[in-house]
Amino acid sequence: MEEEDQRKVTDLVIELVRRLLSQQNPQNPQSPNLNSPHFSQSLRYALRILSSRLTPSIAPDADAIAESIKRRLATQGNSSDALTFADLYTKFASKNGPGSVNNKWAVLYLLKIVSEDRKTANNGMDSSVFLPNLGLNDEGVGNDLRALNGKESREKDWKNGVLLVSKDPENLREISFREFRNVVKDENEVTEEVLVRDVLYACQGIDGKYVKFDSNLDGYALSDSVKVPRGTRIIVRKLCELGWLFRKVKGYISESMDRFPAEDVGTVGQAFCAALQDELSEYYKLLAVLEAQSMNPIPLVSENASSGNYLSLRRLSVWFAEPMVKMRLMAVLVDKCKVLRGGAMAGAIHLHAQHGDPLVHDFMRRLLRRVCSPLFEMVRSWVLEGELEDIFAEFFIVGQPVKAESLWREGYRLHAGMLPSFISQSLAQRILRTGKSINFLRVCCDDRGWADATTESAAAAGTTTRRGGLGYGETDALESLVMEAAKRIDKHLLDVIYKRYKFKEHCLAIKRYLLLGQGDFVQYLMDIVGPELSEPANTISSFKLAGLLESAIRSSNAQYDDPDILDRLRVKMMPHGTGDRGWDVFSLEYDARVPLDTVFTESVMTRYLRIFNFLWKLRRVEHALIGAWKTMKPNCITSHAFTKLQRAVKLQLLSTLRRCQVLWDEMNHFVTNLQYYIMFEVLEVSWSNFSNEMEVAKDLDDLLAAHEKYLHSIVEKSLLGERSQTLYKSLFVLFDLILRFRSNADRLYEGIYELQARTVESSVNSRENKSRRQAKDKSSESGSWVNEGRKALTQRASEFLQNMGQDLDALASEYKSLLEGFLAQLPVQQHIDLKFLLFRLDFTEFYSRQHPTV
């Protein structure tokens, strides 16, 4: 079967040669003699061409060849032929399977060449140089004409997208190659091989023989004295940009490594330099490969040129495409990071990683993993161990030496300038609090239970506690680790604060003793220290007051409290001046030791002291009114003993007593409602809210915020805030006026008691008729009414009651004026609870009816 096919092919070739030779001589259309030498030579030449490995330098694309043929027919004005050809090609291309032509593009290519050859023959040109010229009549045509026709034919064929391949028996190509080589040598003083090697040197930062660094141009360039074409000079300049970039990157690495121990480089800067050096190592490998290729000569034109292992400037530009992109990125990063370090450097590099080019994105990601390695190691060490390994101040958490009581608030803080952009502010705050909690447990609470919590958190997050467990691009893993660690460590910290150090019990103790919530203790303390505090402040012994405090504790339910709590309660004498009484300087303080002093800081205890002074003054005023009531009640009952006084004096006495009682009622109404407001609407409500927030607090910051809110609420509602200073001063003026009333009431009832005693004594003396000397001695005593006559006694009583009535009227008028002013300020207060205080004080609208402005 194969022999039969071979015979068919041979017959076809013979028929093809015969027809081509018959077309060569149109005047003699007879068929050529098959036994002639000319035919035999033409047949051998055709077989040699068909059996050779020569192939057209075009892609074997049948559709492209068909489109070229159709376009040529259309441009020649043969539109109908173009449509006919398109229809025929469609049918031809659809034929597949047995009996069909497999190599369709070759058939189309042959038809196209034959058509072009016919056209050339019709134009009067010698077709002996083309493929149909199988006669090889060397005597008939000269070499020059052959070369000319061949050149024109090749230009024509390239223009149509198809290259004619023919045998060149006269070595015309070699002649052309030699001429081209001579032209190139005339135009170039330096060979391309030398320029390639100089460019490779320049790309390593080394001056070559012809390509050197020009400081004026700030780059590598060919010397102007070197004779090369302008295109060659331009491409050399473009390729040498890589050397300029390399010089910049290499200079930065060398400079940074030389001054590494300095703080302005740091571990992140060192990692950045190491990453750049690794990239330069890959770059060196590429240059080594290219330098090996540059040793091979560059062929001008050759059949093997396309596959030769040589290096030209244009090939070098292709090799340098990817390194150029990377080197430009590294140069940009070097310029950006010259004045940056630590987290700021990592953040700046991260901004350049947001790129759509996959090559750039992968390169920056690989670089950032190296650069951020020290930073993530600092995060891991801080979150899991509480260690701040930041020798060069690169971390976004800064620590400073402080006392244990200030460790939580002032020991550590965020450095916004070192916070990289790929770590959010909320995550940074959580990282800060986690490490701070570990240090607080270790330093202030002397606790080691946090180690188990960190191990559990790492296991729950699916990471390891070893170094290198985190890296750039693993933000989700970082957030998971931080969240798990924060949750467990914060829970452990609150457990230690609540259970081991009894934070809630201490807060309740402060409420009961400093905020006067323990009623029996406060009442008994005020009873026993009252006489002592009435003395001048500089004469009072703090030791004696401490003893009285112990007595008040033992005599009240406070004795059943935890001894540790009672030991923290102490007497404090505030600084005092001349004329101050003990009431003005007496206070209680609570010793909040480590770690509770983190919550109860000095400033917090100062605010508690302000609240205590206010509540102590309020309790003192209440105690004074209660004392006045105790004095008033017996005298009101015994006032009926003045039966022997004149009616006018008796009416005056009853009027004075009534005015005193009415004024006491008004003052007692005000103080009682104010105290109710403070104790229930302020202290109890604030405590209830604080207790609820303590239960839901998730970390120490929440607890501190809840306590701060609790204390701020008390200060604002108790008229101690900055916005209530005018109201606070008015209230203390009212307190002082009530204390003055207590003094006047005591003086009134002491006078009444003495008047009653003297009246009884005068009656006894008149019956017993005592000696005049005794009466004279008695009358000589200051303020004595004994042995005076009934008329004198009545006159003295009238004067005393009149003076007391005037004093009470003055007090009542002043109290009314001050109370109206106080009530008038309440509606304009911003806090709603202060407006509710007005509602309590004027529940019956008594004051508003008397004074519509209230």
TrEMBL record:
GO terms for molecular function: gamma-tubulin binding; microtubule minus-end binding. It comes from Corchorus capsularis (Jute). Residues 505-847 form the Gamma tubulin complex component C-terminal domain. The keyword Ion transport does not apply. Keywords: Cytoplasm, Cytoskeleton, Microtubule. GO terms for biological process: cytoplasmic microtubule organization; meiotic cell cycle; microtubule nucleation; mitotic cell cycle; positive regulation of microtubule nucleation; response to nematode; spindle assembly. Residues 196-499 form the Gamma tubulin complex component protein N-terminal domain. The keyword Cytoplasm applies. It comes from the Eukaryota. Gene3D superfamilies: Gamma-tubulin complex, C-terminal domain. It is found in: Cytoplasm, Cytoskeleton. Coiled coil: none annotated. Residues 767-780 have a biased composition (Basic and acidic residues). Residues 764-786 are annotated as: Disordered. This is Spc97/Spc98. Belongs to the TUBGCP family. One of its GO terms (cellular component) is cortical microtubule. Its main location: cytoplasm. Pfam families: GCP_C_terminal, GCP_N_terminal.
